[in-house]
Amino acid sequence: MSSETAVARPASTIMLLRDRPDGFDVFMMVRHYQIEFASGALVFPGGSVDPGDREIIGQPELYCCAEAEDAPALDFRIAAIRETFEESGILLARPRGADQLVAASRAAEIEAAHRTALCEHKITFSQILADNALVLALDLLVPYAHWITPEKLPKRFDTWFFLAEAPPEQLGMHDGKESTDSVWLSPQEALDGGANGRFTLPFPTTRNLIRLGKQPNVRQALDECRGKPVVSVMPIMGRDGDKRTLRIPAEAGYDGDVFEFTGS
Fold it and tell me: Is residue 198 part of a domain?
């Protein structure tokens, strides 16, 4: 058996938020039980950065308003929007030359025409953007968290989590392939579902939901982390007697540094 540490694959995810009278909801999806990673888990839409995302960096007419910052890099931001479109149909983009996001009716037309082909690698995201005169709204993505899978695990990801307010009237829908269900629910409702067995929640998802749930509405959730340094988290696996533990940096903002790990 090889003792080499698996390379962490770059990945991105977006926590899409929308207000409701008593707080706010976040869009989440149930991963298909037969896929390799996080099968059956309740997660935020997202996935791996691919070469096409990096190619878009060389086409600045396809994105706007991204600040010149090193972390997270443009390819993580572009991947976050592409993966969210693939997995939910929600499109964070503007018509070229416009200040407003693409209308929900137009986004639905683009989704119907291109989403399946994109997922099946029959068309590129850059081609969809160019053909429909769209510009990615990278400015709407607020860096929230950065998690790296522990070194001891065979499948690892280097994942940036972003917050974004969901486009008005774009409701989102799972694809029925990688995910089998999708739902808008409050952070507390998601956590309650994890506690009572309705949902399976990965450890990073649980910690991010707890942290997110401290905010009263979308604006304050975004304002709380806008411009704030993000502390990278790579949990260290250990044991405390017969309990498995995960240690993370206390300064990452998750109300502690050692947590009992009950996942598989």
Answer: yes
Write down the pTM of the prediction. Answer: 0.90
Quick check: is 74 in a domain? yes
Q: For residue 210, which phi and psi values (nearest 5 degrees)? A: -60, -45
- Which domain, by its residues, includes 208? 8-230
Query: Which pair of structure tokens corresponds to residue 49?
Result: 């950065």
Instruction: Specify if 250 maps to a domain.
Output: no
111 membership: H or E segment, kind and range: helix 104-119
Task: Identify the pLDDT of residue 20.
Answer: 94
- Could you give the CA distance from residue 199 to residue 134 in angstroms, rounded to a whole number? 36
Report the amino acid identity of residue 28.
M
**pLDDT tops 60 at residue 177:** no
Beta-carbon neighbour count of residue 129 at 10 Å?
24
Alpha-carbon gap, residue 120 to 170, rounded angstroms: 23
Q: Is the confidence at residue 71, as pLDDT, over 70?
A: no
pLDDT higher than 90, residue 94:
yes
User: Does 253 map to a domain?
Assistant: no
The structure tokens 């839409």 sit at 45
Could you tell me the two tokens for 144?
């929230």
Q: What is the CATH number of the domain that holds 123?
A: 3.90.79.10
What are the helix and strand counts (H, E) for the chain?
7, 14
